Amino acid sequence: MLPLSLLRTAQNHPMLVELKNGETYNGHLVSCDNWMNINLREVICTSRDGDKFWRMPECYIRGSTIKYLRIPDEVIDMVKEETQVKARGRSEINKGRGGQNMRSGRGGARGAFGNRGRPAPLARGGGNVGRNPQNKNKK
Amino acid sequence: MASKEGEKGKGSQSAGDNKEKRRKESILDLSKYLEKSIRVKFAGGREAAGILKGYDPLLNLVLDNTTEFLRDPDDPYKLLEDTRALGLVVCRGTSVVLICPMDGMEAIPNPFITQEG
Amino acid sequence: MASGLENYVNQTVSVITSDGRNFIGTLKGFDQTINIILDESHERVFSSSTGVAQVVLGLHIIRGDNIAVVGQIDESIDSRLDLGNIKAEPLGPIVH
Fold first, then answer.
1. CATH of the domain at B37
2. Per the structure, how many domains does chain B have?
3. Which of A124, B37, B70, C51 can pair with B82 through a Cys bridge, CB separation 3.0 to 4.6 Å?
4. Which Gene3D superfamilies has this protein been placed in (chain B) (predicted)?
5. Do A101 and B20 touch (CB under 8 A)?
6. Is B24 in contact with A129 (Cβ distance < 8 A)?
7. ipTM
8. For chain C, how many structural domains are there in total?
9. For position C19, which CATH number holds?
10. Does B20 reside within a domain?
């Protein structure tokens, strides 16, 4: 099971997100993308030391800044069907007109990252960005 | 760019293609925040608030009447009460960590106290 | 995928994250960036003054960026550990 399939399945569920900077965000997942960027609604933000709290109606979080997400236990049982449906859809694309899709994917400026196999380089690049704050944090 | 992707998507109408198209679209619609005050957090710990004047798909932002929330010099993630006015600024998208509307954002007392005992 | 993690799927694993925390759980999945799904997970909190505390956490997605170590747990050995009497300094975060 892919982590991002689980995350997609967790849409509309409550979750806790801890960022690399130590802040935590409790809210309902509205949407997510292949980079793990997420939209939350009805959010409570907790400061790194757990001493300050903010309420936010909604927020957008860049995936590369996430440390981990805590997801309700029952969500894992809801994933299976969706992955199978998705896998079937993908194989149809590959058989039917995979070549065409690949080409149009590469043609678009950001298209190369739209394909499922591709997010790795970008995600890793994002990780480097995220390391800097920890570095500063450490002195 | 977005419209080009859209046209390509229309050329072939299977469900799989629609899904591909949806994935390429940003999950963040910043147009709803235009001319509104938003809070932005950056990699490294800086935080600012300003009126969103413009943006691009890479999350570069133009903010007007911007205030930066100053931080403890010993702890770049600890906010102080102080702010400083920055005026009109361009925020680099790659360093944007979080965006939320200022409208409805408020500091609150610990809401978890009952659960945690 | 050639990360080697496929052999650990549905096994109990110990994950050390770059902030020095230790998560134990069942590896349910992973991807090419080593984002992982840990089910029925708990955190082991080490302390030099009291025994190891186990905090039940549940279902987790841990982002690959922060993962330092994923190791398989031998449950027969692990269950013999007397965690309540193990005292150890917590790990520090990775310093870049």
1. 2.30.30.100
2. 1
3. B70
4. 2.30.30.100
5. yes
6. no
7. 0.88
8. 1
9. 2.30.30.100
10. no
